[in-house]
Amino acid sequence: MPRVLMARGQGRWCVRRSFKFLLRPAGKQSTALTEMLRDHCSLYNGALQERRDAYRHLSKTTVRYRDQSAQLKDIRAFDPERHGRWSFSSQQATLRRLDKAFAAFFRRVKAGDRPGYPRFRGVCRFDTVEFPKDGDGCRWDSTPKDTVTRVRLHGVGHVRVHQHRPITGTVKTISVKREGGRWFVILSCDGVQAVPLPVTGRQVGIDMGIAHFVTTSDGTHVANPRHGRDAAAALKQAQQALSRCRRGSNRRLKARRRVAALHAVVRRRRLDHAHKAALALVRDADVIAYEALRIANMVRAPKPRPDPEQSGVFLSNGAAAKVGLNRGIHDAGWGVFLGILEGKAESAGRRLVPVDARDTSRTCPDCGHVAKDNRLAQAEFVCVACGHTANADVVGALNVAHRAGLVLREAPAA
User: Fold this and answer.
1) Domain map (residue ranges) of the chain
2) Are strands 314-315 and 305-306 parallel, antiparallel or unpaired?
3) Of 28, 154, 225, 354, which sits most exposed with the smallest number of CB within 10 A?
4) 331 within 8 A of 227, measured Cβ to Cβ
5) How far apart are CA 352 and CA 403, in angstroms?
6) What is the rounded distance in angstroms from the CA atom of residue 193 to the CA atom of residue 15?
7) CB–CB of 274/301 below 8 Å?
8) Residue 365 to residue 368: CA distance in whole angstroms
9) Dihedrals φ, ψ of 397, to 5°?
10) How do 287-291 and 203-208 pair as beta strands?
11) C-alpha angle 252-258-262 in degrees, rounded to nearest 5
12) C-alpha torsion 242→246→252→255, nearest 10
């Protein structure tokens, strides 16, 4: 996905893009990759424990990244079997990852948000190792031999890569990631040439929902496939089987892999649908307006309501009714879709305009009257002032497009 936009002459520009390919390690290489994750996880947890102990000491000592990075040589020399066999730069990246977690923790504390202190990682929950520079502990084979692409990883060897598409730009960082029982390599490349699409002269507003995944201001509905709901029965059965297995047994390992494989299928299907929906929007319009939703707040559980007359008794707060809505929002994956849409729009030279989401489905697009009673049902909109009737999702998309027009007119000229 593009991240950085850099101007270039003649209307051309470059972006930073990530390429993800499936790894095909041999038996010993797969074992080595697993051991690499295990040892990096041990390094992460050890560094976290050192920071916790230093702060709990009477001196309240602060341990920073530079202090722990300076200890790496001694750690590698003390335990060459576990830490000395891996790339020095990848271990620095793991320590830097912990440092970023602490920086985010203190930022949330200062902002008054829920802090979330960095936690210890289990071996099964530490899935990524990053190599900060191509050629330092890793090497991407840009000239494959015998039409087989390989990536060289320090301590693992030359691992075959299923390169299903060519890469462009300059490889900057390389990451190895485990997803379920499969391994992937992720290349972050700079200088990737963007391909702007032809100008269409159209502006569109979109409304995201549960009944319809996306509704555009011209009345087009994109169906919501509900992949999570379709896989719920199989996931429930697999998770029940997992709960009956004894911890540490091979049977539990197989059951856990089965659950992970089902979640991976749902994730890939959701990503595929989001990519196709975003690409259709980018091809169809020059300006795409969307609601700036606070998704994390929308799926938050309602606060408990204590009964003022009885101590220890709580009133109904609608939490049970909201569970279904929260599950539907998570299943739709609005945040994932918006991230993909942003990347495709950036590469294609399109413009995304976020607008205020308040009352978009309660405002009449004809007379501008705002009322809760305008929306009688999930899909039915009837204005109590002028009698205008329409689909509620289409009304929301029209209001989003209208607000985007106001934003564009009020924006200063470039």
Assistant:
1) 5-193, 203-410
2) antiparallel
3) 28
4) yes
5) 13
6) 7
7) no
8) 6
9) -65, -40
10) parallel
11) 150
12) -20
Three-class secondary structure assignment of the chain = CCCCEEECHHHCEEEEEEEEEEEECCHHHHHHHHHHHHHHHHHHHHHHHHHHHHHHCCCCCCCCHHHHHHCHHHHHHHCCCCCCCCCHHHHHHHHHHHHHHHHHHHHHHHHCCCCCCCCCCCHHHCCEEEECCCCCCEEECCCCECCEEEEEECCCEEEEEECCCCCCCEEEEEEEEEECCEEEEEEEEEEEECCCCCCCCCEEEEEECCCEEEEECCCCEEECCCHHHHCHHHHHHHHHHHHCCCCCCHHHHHHHHHHHHHHHHHHHHHHHHHHHHHHHHHHHCCEEEEECCCHHHHCCCCCCEECCCCCCCEECCCHHHHHHHHHHHHHHCHHHHHHHHHHHHHHHCCEEEEECCCCCCCECCCCCCECHHHECCCCEEECCCCCCEEEHHHHHHHHHHHHHHHHHHHCCCC
Residue 370: Cβ within 10 Å count: 14
Give the amino acid at 321.
A
CATH 3.30.420 corresponds to the domain 203-410: yes
pTM for the model stands at 0.85
Handedness of CA 260, 263, 265, 271 (dihedral sign): negative
User: Do residues 372 and 392 lie in contact, with contact meaning Cβ atoms separated by under 8 Å?
Assistant: no
Residue 191 and residue 259: Cα distance in Å, rounded? 39
* Residue tagged 């106001």 (tokens): 406
